[in-house]
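FORM 7B: Structural annotation worksheet

SECTION A. Query
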Amino acid sequence: MHPDYKSWISRWGTTEEALAAMRLQVAGFENPVRTSVLLVLSDPDEIWIKISVDSVLRQVYPNVELCVCTNGSQRAHVLKILEGYADDERIKVRHLPGKHSQAEAYNVALSMATGEFVALLGPGDELAPDAAFRAADFLQSVTADVIYTDEDQTDAAGRRSNPVFKPYWSPELLLSTPYAGRLCVIRRNVLESIGGYREGFEGAEEHDVLLRLSEKTDRIYHLPGVLYHRRKLPGPVRPEKDPVASLRAVEEALARRGEDATVQRDPLSGSFRVTRHLAGRLKVSVIVSTLEGEPDASFLEELERKTSYPVHQLLAASGEEKSYPAAHNASQLFPARAMNLAAGTADGEYLVFTTDRMRILDPGWLPELLAQAQRPSVGAVGCKLLNPDGSLLHGGSRVDLSGLAGYPGEGASEASDGPLVVDQAFNCEAASAECMMVRKAAFDMVGGFDEERLPTAFCDLDLCFRLQEEGLRNVYTPYASLACARPDVLPSEGEIAYMWRRWWANLVRLLYYQRPSVHRLAPRAMDEDILMTAISS
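SECTION B. Predicted structure
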């Protein structure tokens, strides 16, 4: 186990006192939902069957049942062990005499379920003792159809490692990788309404199901907490995931949705890249923020030379009174107002907000942003930004605790004994004005940047939240890469107070609640393209 993760478990793991408190709390649940855990067994060793079954029976939440389907088991101990649980009314068993597909076995287990919600459990895997409680507690206040949690791995000795702290719900990310993983708790009648698990997607049944569920409901939530432990055993094992089947599931999902797009596998990350085709020649106005009277000449030259898609209009948002050909200049204005005035003169169908500190790394950055922004359901689109030395600055935008707390610098201090909020380097719910694209119609619909309350800072984050309020989804693509020298901007007290007052719930949802030591694990386990590429579970 990585020492940082071991320390995190000892500090933030669920104690016996906390479990006892959960048992008492259950009595006050107004909606005591039942969860049916589905377990498919072929021929695992005896110890792994018992560990998985016992992890369900040890749940502090009592309203749980276990539905076991034996899929053509040939080893005598499988049935013998299950017979030993015959007196426990929480366990149901059905035997398939011959070997069937995993999807069919899942559906057999599903047919036995009586709970409002179901969840898969693999042989040898374990549920945390508070897993069912956490899901049921969440459902007391949130109407959800799908809840997915964080997970880690356990070895043969039960040592935990490789935590996967997952991001919040992103339909775009799901097209790139089956990142939701387990534990994944699904409302049973919604799962049944889409026909359950499908044949022909061996190794990608769960990815296919979640893709189809996401077309049926948007009530899908991430519940933070390592509540599922996958068993990792030594020696060669059969891969749990089939990238070919997953790719086909993504292709079929796009076809069902009527999206003009192609899918290809990224051999480096193992994820999928969805390339959406542009609907004709779309006009793009690029608005360049500059600290000088006119944008840096080298940036303008690079913009023209390194961008594969034609820029319809170039506008400058500046605080200096200097003329600039074919551009708008705002006189002695704060950044938000300058950008609003420039956007007001734009006649492109799409707006790109950027700065002359940007350096273009990929000629296809503009059409990549445009392919996302042209979708009617999308608000703002963000890209991957690098520091001048090539290291990652952020993806989409950065939720910066230092700025929200009103002090310079990045990250959080380790001085406090409480849970620390650590900057979130990846954000698929917002985009940064360092490089952001948005349809002009959507920008105008929400009234542009809030120049009155947020004249110098947070206006881009606020814009993204208001786009969400209008039912639009902000997205991040790592396939548009730029480099940027980021200036330090210290917001005013009024701007900080307004953001917390207006967007408390949104901000809290975007921040990691964990020790900095675990946060340092994340960039290695969840690499820089995490939000559209490789989240491995």
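SECTION C. Observations
The CA atoms of residues 357 and 487 lie 9 Å apart. The two ends are 17 Å apart (CA to CA).

SECTION D. Sign-off
Analyst initials: ____
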